[in-house]
Specification:
- With about 220 residues, this protein is of the alpha/beta class.
- The protein has a single domain, classed as SGNH hydrolase (Rossmann fold, 3-Layer(aba) Sandwich).
- Helices cover about 55% and strands about 10% of the residues.
- Helix 4 runs parallel beside helix 6.
- About 35% of the residues are buried.
Length: about 220
């Protein structure tokens, strides 16, 4: 009987811990600003990594993401764009396109052009705030990988947490060191962009699902 009681206690503890995890996860999701967004589209807002440089048309990550979700996906990436240039086009390329969720991916060109990190972070903060003011969710994609842009990793994470945005862990990790997944020194090929799409999809799906449930309950 002692063994049975012990097993029962262990099961009870495990169930309780699972319940706590679920509650905490639910709380985490509720901290994402505009989780009840009423937009219709996922807008991928970024530079050459979003544009799909190095792949044939249709080989970019937003195109791959389109095949993974029923929500329309718009590619608003421009090759060579910096965070400063992005602010200038945010209205026409993002806000005017009825965003449900905007995936923000910038920083690489800022780094190459020696734009101070503080300026980049302030620009991305402004981008996040403008999108959130529109009523859409924001996901910040971390473009650091290994030693490259490593100082941006914690900065992006903290910024996402500060603004109530979704944080997407390093999307290029293991890609730019794998010749089979890249087209040049820093840009993925179609296979690499597909990996990026899968990583982004895994992160944003729980929030899209919660958004769908909230919208259904509000009908």
């Amino acid at each position: 009987m002692l063994i049975n009681k012990t097993k029962i206690n262990i099961i009870f503890v495990l169930v309780f811990l699972c319940f706590c995890v679920l509650v905490l996860c639910g709380c985490a999701k509720r901290e994402i600003r505009n989780i009840d967004s009423r937009g219709r589209n996922i807008v991928c807002f970024g530079d050459s990594i979003t544009f799909g440089y190095g792949a044939e048309p249709g080989g970019d990550y937003p195109s791959a993401l389109t095949k993974m979700t029923s929500i329309p996906v718009i590619n608003a990436g421009i090759d060579g764009d910096t965070s400063t240039e992005a602010i200038k086009r945010i209205k026409s390329d993002v806000l005017d396109r009825d965003p449900l969720l905007v995936i923000v991916e910038f920083g690489g060109n800022d780094f190459l052009r020696k734009i101070p990190q503080e300026v980049t972070l302030n620009n991305i903060r402004e981008i996040i705030e403008e999108i959130q003011a529109q009523g859409a969710m924001v996901a910040v994609a971390d473009i650091s990988t290994g030693m490259i842009l490593k100082e941006y990793h914690s900065a992006f994470f903290n910024l996402a947490r500060e603004k109530g945005a979704i944080f997407i862990p390093p999307i290029l990790s293991g890609i730019i060191t794998n010749p089979r997944l890249k087209s040049d020194f820093i840009h993925p090929n179609a296979d690499g962009y597909n990996v990026i799409a899968q990583r982004i999809y895994r992160v944003i799906t729980p929030y899209l699902n919660q958004n769908s449930l909230l919208r259904q309950s509000q009908k």
